[in-house]
Amino acid sequence: MKRILVTGGTGFIGSHTVVELLQAGDYEVDIVDNLANSKETVIDDIEKITGKRPNFYKQDLLEEDKLRDLFRERDYESVIHFAGLKAVGESVEKPLEYYENNLLSTLNILKCMKEFGTNRMVFSSSATVYGDRDNVALTEDMQTGIGITNPYGRTKFMIEEILKDFCVSDNTKQAVILRYFNPIGNHESGLIGEDPNGIPNNLMPIIMRVSQGRIPELSVYGDDYDTPDGTCIRDYIHVVDLAKGHLAALEKTEGAGVFIYNLGTGKGTSVKEMIIAFEEASGKALPHKIAARRAGDLPAIFANVSKAENELGWKATHTVADAMRDTIKFLNKE
Ligand code: WQD
Predict the structure, then answer these.
(1) Domain 2-184+236-264 -> CATH class
(2) Which residues' Cβ are closer than 6 Å to ligand 1?
(3) Which of 1, 31, 51, 247 allows an S-S link to 9, with CB 3.0 to 4.6 Å?
């Protein structure tokens, strides 16, 4: 059994990845999470789904000594690093918190990896590193870091650069950088899903709260973009496909150095189309209105996904309709 450290493993994408790791059967999973944006009960839900319970350590990655103790004791084969602050708007208001948390926690992990001989990190990156490119299928060889509109996106870009330098400095180390597009949906059991603490920023958790009556209506941030129906287009990927992409990254990447992959569907869906898809799944109208554009939004962002398919043998299989169906199950659980 390979022992994997999953940071942020009680979060939305982390928990779904832990489910896939435990169901694959080859892995023992330790989760480190400070529960800043998740709940400890997710561990129980993971056990209900898989019949296996990951080890859970409630600690903050900024506590370097506690992290060193963990690495010394547990001797990890690999790290999957999800933990980080991830609200775009909040990062503009609190840049120092974002730089300190996202960068220092990563540096602490990398120092532990070097000291204790853990040779691989799979890193949760984001399509935001591509900056202000619009309406082009994004490929991994494109320049990144230009035109990023927020500190959150810049932390992801900076960490990618840190990982490249780290692997150049130590030829035993491997970094697999996975650039996510827009994760949606949840496990088909409806037991785990996107349930952020506080006020969500992303489209789907807001749609979920509108459907629950916790938010009166969805504000569509602009319908005057240069797109077929005037609303912004994004590449929405089912979180189970995204989780399986992490397993493929762990199992298919060989050798030291840096490997970079887009994890998306390669297809674009507009906000209006997302509303229609949710209404079809829920069987009822979703209250919404057209509002002003949101600063920093680009009209159309979607992935070219051929590299992950060719090199990892991975391809997203779920549709937006599948994600909406699963979202309804998660809503009914609550
Ligand atoms: C999607 C679309 C909005 C809310 C961000 C990060 C990215 C990743 C995913 C972490 C946009 C529209 C939204 C609302 C709306 N996060 N919208 N009304 O901005 O594509 O990407 O989240 O990795 O890094 O940049 O996602 O879900 O915020 O917005 O009309 O109340 O929905 O304008 O077109 P985004 P989003």
Answers:
(1) alpha beta
(2) 86, 88, 126, 128, 180, 182, 201-203, 206, 218-221, 232, 234, 271, 294, 297
(3) 31
